[in-house]
Amino acid sequence: MLIPGMVNPQIVYRDRLRACIDGETRWLDLGCGHRIFSNSLPDSEYSQHDLVQRAKLVVGIDGDPGALRANRIIQHRIVGSIEKLPFNDRSFDLITANMVVEHLPEPHILLSEINRVLAEDGLFIFHTPNIKNYKILIARSCPGFLKKKAIKYLQNRDEADVYPTCYRLNRPYTIRTNAPLAGFELAGMDLLQGPADSVMLGPLVIFELLVMKFLSLKLMNDSRSNIIVRLKKARRQADA
Q1: Using one digit for the tens of pLDDT, what is the confidence trace for 43-60?
Q2: Measured between alpha carbons, how far is 57 from 119 in angstroms, rounded to an integer?
Q3: DSSP alpha helices (H): ranges in the chain?
Q4: Distance (Å, rounded) from C-alpha 48 to C-alpha 232?
Q5: Four-residue CA torsion sign, 221, 107, 196, 188
Q6: Environment class of residue 134 by beta-carbon count within 10 Å: exposed (0-12), middle (13-18) or buried (19+)?
Q7: Among residues 42, 60, 61, 53, which one has the least CA distance to residue 18?
Q8: CA 168, 135, 18: angle at the middle one, nearest 5?
Q9: What is the DSSP letter of 40?
Q10: pLDDT, position 239
Q11: What is d(CA 13, CA 125) in angstroms, rounded to the nearest whole number?
Q12: Which terminus of the chain, N or C, has less C-beta within 10 A?
């Protein structure tokens, strides 16, 4: 194997969620869209149903009514802004976001709202692209229409599901710096290299695999493609 030990980031994200969900968990999924995990997760349907059944309560919120209607996993779905959450203080024990925070122009507003609705010792877990990775650097240099076409071809994603990106909370340093300012403690951060996107491009995939092999080196840790972050609500905020 060219890159020993490489794991699909969606699998790691799923496992991080599973480790903190039990029969008492009140869970809010931000930007839930069609589903909790992407189709790249091998057992996506089973994993989603399994996690939802584990929790006491699961609520999904998204600004796209069409995407919410297509969601058959989460029973309680709300159309609304994730930057102005329509919930009382300390309503949830766990809040998650899978490939969502990169779309927000002012993530500090989101972090403040999440802190407000999280219970004492609550967790915010999010999975997002790393702006320092070559994939994002290439994507940001492409015109929007071309990027949508490329994503549809390489990742088999509908163009309607490709939203504008800002990348304001998408590098390890920025996350480590902003978490305490928003009343969070950094409970953990996984920096992972996702699968190759150029499989459909024939021999070009060899070049991408070599780049990925280089990024697997420890010194390149902060430039890997995916970041999974676990933020814990700081107790001083919970007691305020």
Answers
A1: 888 999 999 999 999 999
A2: 14
A3: 9-18, 44-54, 65-70, 107-117, 134-140, 144-155, 172-181, 204-215, 235-238
A4: 23
A5: positive
A6: middle
A7: 53
A8: 70
A9: T
A10: 47
A11: 8
A12: N
Question: Judging by DSSP bridges, how do beta strands 57-62 and 92-98 pair with one another?
Answer: unpaired
103 has pLDDT over 50: yes
What pLDDT, in 10s, does the model give residues 162-208?
Answer: 568 889 999 999 999 999 999 999 999 999 988 777 655 567 777 77
Alpha-carbon gap, residue 125 to 112, rounded angstroms: 15
Q: What is the Cα–Cα distance from 9 to 70, expressed in whole angstroms?
A: 24
DSSP string across 60-99 = EEES-HHHHHH--S-SEEEES-TTS--S-TT-EEEEEEES
The structure tokens listed for 219 are: 């010194």
For 230, the enclosing helix (H) or strand (E) is strand 226-233
Residue with tokens 């969502």: 100
Residue 237 φ/ψ, nearest 5 degrees = -75, -40
What is the per-residue pLDDT for 195? 79
Beta strands 184-192 and 92-98 are unpaired
Rounded Cα distance between 208 and 156, Å, is: 19
Structural domains for the chain: 9-130+166-194+224-235 (3.40.50.150)
Residue 192: enclosing H or E segment and its boundaries? strand 184-192
Tokens of 176: 């480590």
